[in-house]
Amino acid sequence: MKHGFKGIKVDFLDGDSQERFKFRETIARECAERKLMLSYHGETMPRGQQRRWPHIATLEGVKGEEYYLFEYGPTPAYNVNLFFTRNIVGSMDQCPSGFELSGTPFSRRTTSNAHEMALAVLFESGWQSMSVSPESMKDNPAKGFLKDIPSAWDDIHFVDGYPGEFAVLARRKGQDWWLVGINAGQPREVIVPLDFLKPATYKARLYHDAPASSTVGFDVSVQNCGGVNAVLCWIELWSTEKPAKSLDYQRPKGVTEASLGYHLVAVDDCGDQNHQPDLISGQHWRYRATEVPLAVCDENDPARTISYSESAILYRFADLSQAARYKLRVMYLSHNENRSQSLFVNGRELHGKLDLPKQRIVCREFDLPGADIKELPLAAVKTRIAVDDVTVDSASPLKVSMPANGGFGVKLEGSVKGVQSR
Q1: SS3 category, 349
Q2: What is the arithmetic mean of pLDDT over 292-301?
Q3: Torsion angles phi and psi, residue 136, rounded to 5
Q4: Residue 300 to residue 293: CA distance in whole angstroms
Q5: From the CB of residue 206, how many other CB atoms can be counted at a distance below 10 Å?
Q6: Residue 58: closest CA among 29, 87, 22
Q7: Are 98 and 63 in contact (CB under 8 A)?
Q8: SS3 for 123?
Q9: Cα 372 to Cα 347: distance, rounded to the nearest angstrom
Q10: Distance (Å) of CA 177 to CA 134, 137, 169, 372
Q11: Are 239 and 262 in contact (CB under 8 A)?
Q12: % of the chain with per-residue pLDDT over 70
């Protein structure tokens, strides 16, 4: 019976024991007999398997895009370093272009969308498993660049780069070149010599990061200044200006309405993923009864869930009016002793080192004048991809600006210089 499968992806190999290698060999042999492509995920570093079994299209062996969901996930500099290291030993199932791995409370991605788009060409994989869904690509400007990326390449041309800082590369398939770059750290302009193209003038499409925009509001930072980490179990922002939509949340026991004339404009049930629209950095934990007794807060009390971080928890309340006045409420709950932390808003200290008692809720409320609101640059992950039609002359270098942690991509069609038929 035929089902139309082209290949299979095997996960959780997780080791280099003799039993694991025998398992790999069995799978490779069975897939070869059935003319199926093969992807090894949850895999260690490649060791030449693709020479014996060319139908092995790719292997993970890397901290890929799924790790954006963890506190110690890939950084922009790490992505640059992968370009100089990992693909040397074999194809890499890094699962690039994780546009959707952002905007959630637990996403740690700091790369721009153009940076993510470029990874699909920068990293070689015979089976490019992208971290996208059909729904997310429907209106994504990167679709025009990604839809025709081949699974195998005919040529590669290193343009420029330095480990940990930036990388620019061109790959060729047939008569077409794909040119991409990614950046880590400070904005930079790259100058790309086009002497690898056949002499001509080309019309191309440049995919790049749109100019960074900003918003105004409060950055609220809970910083660890003693103990295991910083913790926060509830945070609210009230304003004298009424929001367009009223908010209604189950509050922890003992939390009351704010003063007369104030309206709730933002609230985060720290630790509850669905109720953390303003969390920028921090992780989730739910206290067990052995850590915080039910007498302190019952099983369903929102105070039982917390945000925590070894260094600092960051919340951002954006698009606020400077004409209003605000009240900020925070609640802390620690399950152990020897934990101290401080609180800042837009860099201004609201309280210094505060020693938290064990298994007891501590509440604090602060008045924030609208004058405290400041312009907050949007993170690179919030940028959008812009698409420009450009004219490229092979005799002149192409200049491209990349913002911090940004990237770009260009497809040049029919631009191969002196390609020999094979």
Answers
A1: strand
A2: 91
A3: -70, -20
A4: 12
A5: 19
A6: 87
A7: no
A8: coil
A9: 10
A10: 26, 23, 10, 50
A11: yes
A12: 92
What was the pLDDT predicted at 362?
Answer: 94
Residues 6+ apart with CB under 8 A from 144: 205, 207, 387
306 closest CA partner among 277, 331, 284: 284
Task: Kindly tell me the burial class for residue 220, based on how many C-beta atoms sit within 10 Å of its own C-beta (0-12, 13-18, 19 or more).
Answer: buried
Joined together, the tokens standing for residue 72 give 């110690």
Residues, the chain: 422
Q: Which of 410, 384, 381, 280 is nearest to 76 (CA)?
A: 381
Residue 270 C-beta-side C-alpha neighbours within 13 Å: 29
Nearest 5 degrees, angle CA 132-CA 137-CA 140? 125
List, as one string, the DSSP characters of 4-71: ---EEEE------SHHHHHHHHHHHHHHHHTT-EEEE-S-----SHHHH-TTEEEE--S--GGGGGST
Residue 97 has phi, psi (to 5 degrees) of 65, 50
Q: How far is CA 295 from CA 325, 330, 360, 361, in A?
A: 36, 21, 10, 12
Distance CA 270, CA 289 (A): 18
Each residue of 346-403: pLDDT tens digit?
A: 889 999 999 999 999 999 999 999 989 988 766 655 668 999 999 899 999 999 999 8
CA–CA distance, 159 with 175 (Å, rounded to integer):
19
Q: Which two tokens stand for residue 267?
A: 């609230």
Token pair 């930072």 is found at 221
Look up residue 76 and give its two tokens.
Answer: 């922009």
Burial of 95 (0-12, 13-18, 19+ CB in 10 A): buried
β pairing state of 37-40 and 234-239: unpaired
Residue carrying the six token digits 């309206």: 263
Number of Cα atoms under 13 Å in the Cβ half of residue 57: 23
Tokens 């900003």 — which residue? 214
